[in-house]
Amino acid sequence: MQQVFSIPKSMKKDFKYTFCPGCDHGIAIRLLTEVIDELGIQDKSICATSIGCSVFLYDFVNVDCIEAPHGRALAEATGVKRACPDKVVFTYQGDGDFASIGLAESMHAAFRGERVTALMLNNTTYGMTGGQHGPTTMMGQITTTSPTGRNREYYGYPAKMAEQLALIDGCAYSARVALDSIPHINEAKKAIKKAFQVQLDGIGLGFVEILSTCPTNWKMTPEQAHERVRNDMVKTFPLGVFKDLSDNKED
After folding, report:
1. Would you say residue 250 has pLDDT above 60?
2. pLDDT of 124-177, one tens digit each?
3. Which listed residue, 75, 155, 206, 220, has the most CB atoms within 10 A of its CB?
4. Could you report the per-residue pLDDT of 72-121, keeping only the tens digit for each?
């Protein structure tokens, strides 16, 4: 049976659900569209997303979108925002896209204090291309390219982007959330809205790292995958708000 997103009617496209069962992209996209609808910014929103499962956003969400080469979403978002400063510009990216091949673009957008919003779904793997080791793969985690598990000597440590961006002056808001439970989903929506609000207020870049599942490449059931988020991922990637300049706009 065809599945559909429970997203605001005005924002929904009539397109068959294509994410794997148990994938959290569906929840993340629902929260994103609810925030856009509640803020009343659909008509002036422009999304930039690039290679990875995040690219399917185009199929479901009724906003203007542009596609970027792998890792270059924030570079394109920068161009769009500077050419059209009255638009609300956001990116929707995976952790490999944002924190590996696109790391320079991501960090420098924050260094410049671009007035855009960036969402990064962190599932600790390259989901679309076969479950390879990625920048956020956890210590000991087995992937198709780290069959004995991630170790410090060979692979180094996982990237913690919420903490890193919080250190950058141009980043106005940085938070990490999860989608494993109703309370966490509610907190995730608040964080996404705040990341858009700092853009609307002209303060700086708003960033949200979203811990999400990849049951197919993790070789788990959806229930097991969410348990992994709760029991393992939050130990490596603590939840919380790491920076919020919304109450100090003069800075």
Report:
1. no
2. 988 777 767 889 988 988 888 888 889 999 999 999 999 999 999 999 999 999
3. 206
4. 999 999 999 999 999 999 999 999 999 999 999 999 999 999 999 999 99
Q: How many domains does the chain have?
A: 1
Which residues are CB-neighbours of 14 under 8 A, at least 6 positions away? none
Phi, psi at residue 206, to the nearest 5°? -110, 130
Say which residue the tokens 């429970």 belong to: 6
User: Could you tell me the CATH number of the domain that includes residue 57?
Assistant: 3.40.50.970
Counting every residue written for the chain, the total comes to 251
Residue 48 pairs in a beta bridge with 66, 91
What is d(CA 122, CA 119) in angstroms, rounded to the nearest whole number?
A: 10
| Sign of the Cα pseudo-torsion (2, 97, 43, 251, in order) | positive
Indicate whether 4 belongs to any domain.
no
| Spatial separation of the C-alpha atoms in residues 229 and 29, rounded to whole Å | 18
Range of the domain at 203: 19-244
Kindly state whether residue 2 falls inside one of the protein's structural domains.
Answer: no
